[in-house]
Structure formats: structure tokens, C-alpha cells
Amino acid sequence: MLPRPRHTWHLPRGPLALGDRTLLMAILNLTPDSFSDGGRFPSEQQALTQALTLLDQGADLLDLGAESTRPKATPLSADDEQARLLPILTAIRRARPRALLSVDTYHAATAEAALALGTDLINDVSGLLWDPRMPATLAAARPAPGLVLMHTRGTPQQWPTLPALAPEAIPPLVRDDLAARLAAVTAAGIPASAIVLDPGFGFGKRGEENYPLLAHLADLHTLGRPLLIGLSRKRFLAPEADARSDAASETRLHATVAAHTAAILAGAHILRVHDLPAAHAAASVADRLLEQRGDGAAARGEPRR
Fold first, then answer.
1. Cα–Cα distance for residue pair 226/151, rounded to 1 Å
2. CATH 3.40.50.720 is the classification of domain 8-13+21-293
């Protein structure tokens, strides 16, 4: 367990210090078919209420997604995505002008529209690969938005048939691919200081293939950028459970807490989560452990939010 690297993440509202404590990005799915909580918020008012609840529970950032990327998911057009997303985004921004808002999209047109409405960052699960217009769109935006640059292997339609990976091959593959994507997007004009990296658990890594990545997560610090980790309710944590049953939800919650703790001890700066109270508990314990190595805000008596 090494001290967590400190970084400054440059966002339109100003620099955000990362590393003193774990930040929590709460998930708001606006889809009818996401793998875990799709269809829970079918109306604008229900979605707004949930967004405000998450912020009141202490979410540091809120990530809005309107298209499912579960395996075999049917792609959504940018127009349909925006019809789901933009009214909710507008309502949240009106209700909470100072909230840090992220939009989960790989469509350049959606990113452009969301940024015009005050989105702080774009979370692109494709690593800016699925829409060739995305790098130029983000590079041209002013002020420069934040970017979550994720590693993805293939597309949701391809994932079930991708060839298996040897366990020892997975960590260097993800590290090298992320290094290449980081170089490409900065060459396109997106400042490195605006970027955080996500290794993409479950995105083209099937089942047990995710464990070597988690075990060697600290290797990604060599890339010099902060790490955002999405492990919440992932199927590989409890493969025997049906994600939509109450028992499975509890099983995956317990496994998620364990995985979150492991990720923080490996130096994760931000967790993308469904269950905020449980994530707060995991982060509080893990941050205290990092404190014992002289790492973290808790050593200076600063409370978690």
C-alpha cells in the first residue's frame, strides 16, 4: 500500500485537488435498460428528485447517462440520447448551479449540447474512439471541459465473442492502450490536466479477467494522471447473482464495498458509484488506512463530506 499520488484536475469551474480523500461520483442512469438500475426514474421529476438526493447524500460529482452500454446493448442515436438527457441536465443545473456534473456519452453532438448547458466534464467510455468528431469537439470547447478517458476493448456488441485474455496480459494491455489514447487526445488539443483515466472494468474484460486489472491497478499511476474507477455492482463481483433481484443487489453491494476498498488502497482518486452510503463507508475506512502512511486529508482533521 503506497501513498496515493496527488493531482490537480482542471475543470471549467476551477482546479480540483485530487488525492487528499476519495471523491465519489454518483451515477444517475436515465435509461430503461441499464444492467443494474435502468428504468428506475422514468419521469423528469423522478430523475431530478434522485439527482438532488444523491447530491444531498454527499456526492462530489454526478454522472448522467442516457444510453446503456451493457453487453449486446442496442446503440442509441445522438438525437434520442439528447431527448432523454438534456431536459434532466437542464433541471439539475437550474436547481443546483454549483454542482459538478458529468455526462456519460460517446456522441460528439451530445457532448457539445451538454457542454452548452453547463456540463463540467464528459465521461466517454470509448476513449474517444467511437465518434471521430469527439476529440475535436472537446478540444474546441471553452472553457476546456474535464474528460474521463476510459479503456474499452471492442464494443458492447462484440464483447460476448471477444477472445479470452491471459491474466498476465491484461494489466500491461490496459496500461499501454491508455498511454496511447492519452497521447492521442492530448495531441488533438485536449489538455492533459483536464483528463482522468478509467481502466474500464467490465468493458471488454469478461468475468475473471477483471481481477488481474484490479490487483495491478497501482501500475496505472505511471501514466501520470488521476484514476477514476467504476466497479459498482459489476457482474464479475457476484457472477451467480441476477442483477435485478433484491438478494443479488445485496450480494453485489457487499462485494462492491470490498472492491472499492481495494481500489482506494491501490490509489484510486474517484469512485463512480450507485450506492453512496456504502461507498462513503468504504472510502472512510480506506482513506484512514492511507492516512497511516501520511496520506490523506483525515491526517489534518478534515471530515468527509
1. 14
2. no
